[in-house]
Each structure stands twice: as C-alpha cells, then as structure tokens.
Amino acid sequence: AQSVAQPEDQVNVAEGNPLTVKCTYSVSGNPYLFWYVQYPNRGLQFLLKYITGDNLVKGSYGFEAEFNKSQTSFHLKKPSALVSDSALYFCAVRDSSTGGFKTIFGAGTRLFVKA
Amino acid sequence: DTGVSQDPRHKITKRGQNVTFRCDPISEHNRLYWYRQTLGQGPEFLTYFQNEAQLEKSRLLSDRFSAERPKGSFSTLEIQRTEQGDSAMYLCASSRGDAEGNTIYFGEGSWLTVV
Predict the structure, then answer these.
(1) Does A67 contact B at CB distance below 8 Å?
(2) Which of A1, A2, A67, B32 is deepest in the core (most CB within 10 A)?
(3) What secondary structure letter does DSSP report for A85?
C-alpha cells in the first residue's frame, strides 16, 4: 500500500532564507509525487509534480522539489522564503501499480515565515 | 477555464439530518474524486469516479454516505443521519483520465458542521 510521511509538523524560517519541507513516501510501483499548498479555509492548490525524467522539478511561486529514489524522498525547497509563503503544505503520492488514480496525502507541514 | 466548483461552501446541520454537497468538475475532466479533511490532517480519500462509474470507495465511506455522478459531469455527496464525527471539510477534485500522472485539481471545499 502506498503511504507518505511529512516528519515535521511545522517549519520556521526567516524571510529571505532558504526553506525545505520534507517528504518521504512508500509505494510498490513507480511513484507519482505532488506538492500542494493550502491557505486558511481554502482548497488545495497544486504547486508541482514529479512523474518521470529530471529529478529536480520546478513549480509555481519559485518552489522546486528534488526526487531521490534511493532515499524515497521528495523534499520541497525554495531558495528565498517570503512571508506570503506561510501556509500548510501537503506532499502526495500516487502508485503506478494501483492503476494510478488514487492519490494519498501526508498530514501536512505548516510553514511559518517570519519577517 | 473555470476551476472545480463546490456548493454549498458552508453547511451547519443538526445531528440526524441529511446533507448533500454538489461538485462541478473542470469541464474536460472525466475523473472526479471526493476527499474529507479534518483539522490538522491531510485530505483522506473517500471515492472516485471515471465518467459516471464509481470505481472505488474507501472504508471511510460508511453506508450513511452515498456519492453519485449520474451523467458523468457533476457529482453529489449525500450524508444521511449526520453525526458530530462527520464534521469536516469535504473536498472535490477532478482530473483528466488520459494518463496516470495527471494532476488533480481541487475545489474550495464544503465545510460541514454537525451540531
């Protein structure tokens, strides 16, 4: 069965500093990996995804993520954090061996960027 | 390109009443998903449609829950005899069905409070 873990409930970073939000996953087949962001009382907004190819994927708002197959990780990164990046971030995985339709989400990591 | 639309955005109901939520997916998307999200948790998969066919239901979807997508376009999620534990945000999402790695796009969610 597929699963995803976000080991940090909260990440604190100063504005202008680089940020990393961690994610590890477990699948039987090949993983399709996603990051979403959620602002208060809103739905989830898609940031970026890894399907195949280059391990470093770039997404919206300057975010990027690196797929590491050996460590089964897909950490979200941004070189310079903004206060407006403060939100709840979800990592998600879809397992190709299950037909590739069911996306499982982590519990989320709250990012707090201090001015 | 309009996004996924959900209605109502908020619903307060008394325990034991029935509620129904509607979801209108992005027009060219033939896959539709329902998720449930409680405070401090990531979205939990409930069910999935490909066109009008409901292909998988989570164990979370008790017999008080029913979802339909009669014409392969909009979908409804009905909860009968609501309980306080049903209080959550119900998220609808949609995607194209032509590739396993397609991104799912979420609506703004429907908040349910059972009092």
Answers:
(1) no
(2) B32
(3) G
Interface check A90 vs B, CB under 8 A? yes
- pLDDT digit string (tens) for B2-44? 799 999 999 999 999 999 999 999 998 999 999 999 988 999 9
B82-93 pLDDT tens trace: 999 999 999 999
A35 alpha carbon, distance to own chain's centre: 4
A74, A67 Cβ separation under 8 angstroms: yes
How many helices, marked H, and strands, marked E, lie in chain B? Answer: 0, 11
Q: Indicate the residue type of A24.
A: T
Which pLDDT score is estimated for A100? 62
* Ramachandran angles phi, psi of A10, nearest 5°: -145, 145
Which tokens sit at B56?
Answer: 């998988």
What is the CB neighbour count within 10 angstroms for residue A24? Answer: 18
A40 touches chain B (CB under 8 A): no
Residues of B in contact with A45 (CB under 8 A): 106
Please check whether residue A34 touches B, CB under 8 A.
Answer: yes
Please tell me the predicted confidence (pLDDT) of residue A61.
93
Residues of B in contact with A44 (CB under 8 A): 43, 91, 93, 106
Give the closest-approach CA distance of B20 to chain A in angstroms: 19
